[in-house]
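Extended Data, record Crotonobetainyl-CoA:carnitine CoA-transferase CaiB-like acyl-CoA transferase
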Amino acid sequence: MSSKTLEGVRILDLSRVLAAPLASQMLADLGADVIKVERPGTGDESREYGPPFLNDRDGNPTSDAAFYLSCNRNKRSVTVDLASPRGQEIIRRLAADSDVVLENFKTGALKKYGLDYDSLKAVNPRLVYCSITGFGQTGPLAHKPGYDGVFQAMGGMMSVSGLPDDAPGGGPMKVGISIVDILTSLYASNAILAALHHRDVGGGTGQHIDLSLLDCGVASLSHFAMNYLVSGEIPARRGNGGYGGVPSQTFRCADRDLFLTAGNNAQFGRLCLALDRPDIAKDPRFDNTAGRIRNRDALLAMLDAIFATKPASVWLERLDLADVPSSPVNDIADALANPQVVHREMVREIEHPVAGVLKTLRNPIRLSETPINDYAPPPLVGQHTDQILAAAGYAPEDIETLRQAGVV
C-alpha cells in the first residue's frame, strides 16, 4: 500500500530553488498532486546549480543538477511563461481547480501579473495560498532579496555557531547545509496542512500564509533565544560543545573524532568507568550537573587528554557497553553506510527516464496505515505540460499554438 494521506489535494507550485520546493516535495511524498510550474526552456533555476549534474545512462552529464534532484521528486512539471497574459490565464485556470498555491517570488512580484493571493482568491475562494519570502509580506525589509546564509547571519544563528573568538579559527560560523531553507520548508508544510484542516474540517475558508525565512531562522533559535530572554546574556560560542549537560561534544581520539553526551549524573558515572577513571565522577567539582557546567573547562581538559590516548573504535566500544550515547563523527559516505541507516532504507533507488537508476534519500516519515512507498523521479522540464493542460481543458491544437508562441 502506498501513501494516500493527501490524496485529492492538488498543489500548484510556482516556487523554485529550495525552501518552497522542499515543502511541496514533503506534501507530494504524502500523496498530494503537485504541479510544478517552470519557465519554458530553462525550468527551475536550481537545475543549473551544479556541478555535480546527473549523468545519463551513457555517463554523459545532463542539465539537471543534484541540487534540483534533492527537492522535486513526486511532482509533475508544466512550463508556463508567467509574464505572458496567456500564461497568466493558464495559471488562473489551474488555480481554480487547486487546493494550494505555493510561491516564493519577491514580495509583491506576482501582483503585477494578477497572480497574487487576492487575485487568485477571486478565482477560487477556497484556495490556500502560501508565500515564502526572505523577510515576509510586511516590514521595512519586505522587498529585499536574501539567501540562506544571509538569514543565518541576520537571525543570530551564526553568532552561536563556531569556536569562541579567542580560539584558533574562532568566530561566527555558518551551518554547512542550507538549514534556514530546510526549517522553513517544514514550517510551510505544517502551515499548509493546518490551513487545509481549518478549511475542510473546521468549516473555514481558504487563506494566505505569510512565511519569512528570517522569521523561521529566528524561531529556530529556540532555547538559545529563551536563555537570552530569561537571563539577558548572549550565549557564547562553544564549537562542538553543547549548552546543556557537560560533557556533550566532540573529542579528538588517537585517530579521529567522536561525539558523546553524558547529560546526567548516571551517564557521567558510566562514562568515567568506561574511561577507567571512576575518580573523576567522585570529584566534588564534577559530581553533579551544575558543578560540571561551572567547571566545564577543567573537566574537558581532563577528558581531552584521556581520549587522545586511544583510537576512537576502542572508546566507542567501551561507551556503547556503558550505554553512553556516542558516535564517530561521520562524513556523508560514512553516514549513509551506517548499518542503522541502511536497515531503515534511507537511500532509495528509483527509475529516472534519462539516468536509469537514480539514488535518492527517502522521506523519514513512517506511517503504519499509509506508508510512503511511491518515489517518482524529479520531472524533466515541462515533462507533463501536455497532460496537465489537456486536463485543464486545452485542446491539442491550442497547446501547440501556446508552445509555438513560447507561452509553454
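Summary. The first strand starts at residue 10 and ends at 13.
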